[in-house]
Amino acid sequence: MKTSNIIVIIVVILIVALGWLFLQPKADKEAVPTVNSYEECVAAGYAVLESYPTQCQTPDGRTFTADVGNELEKTDLIQVSNPRPGQAISSPLEISGTARGTWYFEASFPIHLEDAAGNRLATSIAEAQSDWMTENFVPFRSTMSFTATSSGPFTLVLEKSNASGLPEHSDELRIPVIVSDGSNSTASRTSGGCVITGCSAQICASEDMASTCEFRPEYACYQSANARCARNSANQCAWVETAELKACLAQAQ
Known about the structure:
The protein is of the alpha+beta class. The chain has 3 domains: 31-66, no CATH class; 67-181, Immunoglobulin-like (Sandwich), CATH 2.60.40; 186-253, no CATH class. It has 5 helices and 15 strands. It has helices spanning 3-23, 38-43, 71-74, 219-222, 243-252; strands at residues 47-49, 55-57, 63-65, 78-82, 88-89, 93-100, 108-115, 120-128, 137-144, 154-159, 172-179, 195-197, 203-205, 229-231, 237-239. The strands form 4 sheets. The protein has an 8-stranded mixed β-sheet, with no helix packed on it. It has a 3-stranded antiparallel β-sheet with strand order 1-2-3. Strands 12-13 form a two-stranded antiparallel sheet. Strand 2 (55-57) and strand 3 (63-65) form a beta hairpin. The longest helix is centred in the N-terminal third of the chain and has 21 residues, at 3-23. The termini are far apart. The chain crosses the membrane at residues 6-23. This is Bacterial spore germination immunoglobulin-like domain-containing protein. It comes from Candidatus Vogelbacteria bacterium RIFOXYD1_FULL_46_19. Keywords: Membrane, Transmembrane, Transmembrane helix.
């Protein structure tokens, strides 16, 4: 065999070998994150779809949906503006929203916080802020103090007042929440009597307001610990236009 042919064969073998090595996964390639829940999907940095409840999709086509309790089933009976599903809460917890007059009895209804085993950790009473003798929505407020030894999961349960005690007249709204040190609670981000309200906690106003339950990317900006709801120079409640909020909103467009 001629020397030139041997050289050609060696070159071909080297090219094939290099190509094979190039196509193989690198040894130091990072392992693909294990994803079995919505929270793990978001933590892995995968795409969050514009929907309500929000959905996260993995590269292999699996979709995980955020847990919002039974909020969508009860939206025509009771709507909670604070806390929102999945929100970090701390004690004392300010609870607010609107409920139809039929949810109350004597202008109030009970609320409790329970752990994953169903144990009640705290209770409070929601009080109507206007005439409750109606079938329309009536705003309510309540303050709950609690002590939790872990970060959950926990569920805030808003019970329909049932003076009869009959099971067919009972109902409840269940909101999944987590416990934090309070740095991102809505109470810590408001001042001047303003409240963070709306179905996605996207509105800064002087009183609770109902809104449609939809998700837009910019809503996440208003749920950040840096988002502040306060009175402006015109003495109106509005989001404080900080550099961080402006940058977040610009990126969400």
